Amino acid sequence: METALTTSMEDYVETILQVLTEKQGVRASDIAERMEVSKPSVTGALQALARQKLVNYEPYDVISLTDKGKKVARAVLRRHEVLRRFLKDVLAIPEKEAEKTACCMEHAISARVTEKIAVLTDLITRCPAAKSRCAPAIRAARG
Predict the structure, then answer these.
(1) Which one, of 38, 56, 37, lies nearest residue 46 by Cα?
(2) Mean of the pLDDT values across residues 75-87?
(3) Among 16, 32, 41, 112, which has the minimal tally of Cβ within 10 Å of its Cβ?
């Protein structure tokens, strides 16, 4: 039986994908360090993700994402990056705050909304007229 992914589960698959882009293999200790959680918490999450067929996991072995897990992780990472870029580049939110806020928001928006935000961000950041019209309103709102 397949259940919906929790925010935490999405964070785990996203973290695994990020570590995989930096290293050949992922271990539970890599995840624990990156997410600042205990190793037993990682073990529990990995067991749940394995039941969902999102990760290949055996204790003391390297961890990998299944094809399904890669698809989920890429979608979460895409939402995160689109939101971070929108917050930072369009709304002029400082980097750390944009990163933290994007991490919270990424779990609540659909793929459709993500793509619309991406299009809007591209329009505003690439079009000088749009940028010049938006900038004063953004500065005024920061007031």
Answers:
(1) 56
(2) 95
(3) 112
